[in-house]
Amino acid sequence: MDFFILLKNKQSVAKNLCFLIPFTSVLLALIAIHMVHNKLTFRPKKGSSLLTTLGVFLNSLKMCCLHYRHLSGDVANWLDRAKENNGGRYSETSVENVKVLVKLFPLYGLQLLYRACITQIPSGYYLQTMHSNLKLNGFLLPVAVMKVISILPVLILAPLLELLNTCYQSPKKILPSPATFITMGHACAALSALLAGISEIHRKDYPQVEQTLSGKVLHVSSMTCFQLTPQYILLGVAEAFVTPACSLISFCLTPSNLRGVSLHFLTLSYGGGCFLGAFLVHFLYFVSGGNFYPNNLSSGNMERFFFTLATLMAINTLVFWRISQRYTDLSVELSSGAGHSHLYEKLLQYKTCLRFYDTLDRSDTLTSMETVL
């Protein structure tokens, strides 16, 4: 009886830590931002880039509906109807910038299914781990220990890739393009889902044992949870490859005034991928009558769900590989100095500020001299 009370207290403390850790992280981030807020670069507002982008889309649709083949004539791109010389409301520069942004939409769309694979860590993979043997030398491990294993590749590969990027700056040494890293990351995600299906078949071959989680006794497989490690590591490797590469492409291949909008669309695709993952679970559950995503893993065939997800992700990887040549010119732009364009813009702005304040100082000096005279 004392053992169950002690176990319940430990679980209560662990639950409180789950809320304390993100709260502390956010608090430290706010303190760090407040400490350096005087050193941040503030730019004067010149209108909303997001509203301008949405305005170009809406105006183009309106012109297509009202003036299709009548007033505007034939145009090479439907967005060109928003230009002022075609009867639209926006300048040619604004429309051309939006056309550059539209070229990244296939990249954003192909991240949806990838994010659906990533959401399997707190959903499908979580159920697999919960129905596996969590005991290690008699000690009951928390289910979140596998989540930690999926984070380790990100912590190791992120600085390692940055180091390789620094070492391969010479023209003779060419590092794979960000599009190549995205392709490899998508392939790792597909392979992870495939291994999850194989592990599920292997897990059900083991005899069942009783295991207590959160005060409930569950009949789980005697297979140790660490046999699920490869699928977690592959998703961690995929995250280390895909997320930085997508951010780099979204930042460097868009005009400076639309970089924030580009990153917003990228984040929107990440959120949409989470909803797509939930939709796939509910859809396959409904179609299969609960067989693909069962309430009791021992009585269903959850491996079919993972195989379906792996097949969809493999198709997604092939599609991105076919269109990846659109984003492979990024290495050329970086080597030609486009990667330092943001820093160069900051230096120009800093020089402009210095000239502005220098002009103020001189004018104040002249005014004081005139007063004395």
TrEMBL record:
A family per Pfam: PTR2
Cell inner membrane found in the keyword field: no
TM stretches of this protein: 20-37, 139-158, 179-198, 232-253, 265-285, 305-323
Topological relation to the membrane, as annotated: Multi-pass membrane protein
Localisation per UniProt entry: Membrane
Keywords attached to this entry: Membrane, Peptide transport, Protein transport, Symport, Transmembrane, Transmembrane helix, Transport
Database matches in Gene3D superfamilies: MFS general substrate transporter like domains
Keyword Transmembrane helix: yes
Coiled-coil residue spans: none
Gene Ontology annotations of biological process type: peptide transport
Predominant location: membrane
GO cellular component: membrane
Recorded family membership: Belongs to the major facilitator superfamily. Proton-dependent oligopeptide transporter (POT/PTR) (TC 2.A.17) family.
UniProt-listed PANTHER family: OLIGOPEPTIDE TRANSPORTER-RELATED
Protein name in UniProt: Solute carrier family 15 member 5
